[in-house]
Amino acid sequence: MPEEEIQEELEYVLRKLELNREEFYRIMPVPPKTFMDYPNYYETIRRFRYPIKIACKLRLLPAIVYEKYAL
């Protein structure tokens, strides 16, 4: 990309995120995080994958619960 276009894109992103350049350049080097970096019930759901599947087949839980979390 030409430098001018890069600067335009950067200005657009800064405006949309309501950040100034200092904040942006302080945030960018930080390693990305995933949902596993925060408290959640993922391991519990994984541990109960098969009971959840059975509950979904018996229509005790919506099928999306198994499809979204237990696969």
In summary, what is this structure?
Helix content is 63%, strand content 0%. The chain has helices spanning 3-17, 21-27, 42-47, 49-57, 63-70.
What does this structure look like?
The protein has 71 residues and is mainly alpha-helical. It has 2 domains: 1-30, no CATH class; 32-71, no CATH class. 63% of the residues lie in helices and 0% in strands. The protein has 5 helices and no strands. It has helices at residues 3-17, 21-27, 42-47, 49-57, 63-70. Helix 4 packs antiparallel against helix 5. The longest helix is centred in the N-terminal third of the chain and has 15 residues, at 3-17. It is elongated and about 60 Å long. The model has no long low-confidence stretch (mean pLDDT 91).
> What is the overall silhouette?
elongated
The number of helical segments is 5
Helix content: 55-70%
Number of domains: 2
End-to-end separation in angstroms reads: 40 Å
Radius of gyration: 21 Å
Number of strands: 0
Biggest sheet record: none
Element order, helices and strands?
HHHHH
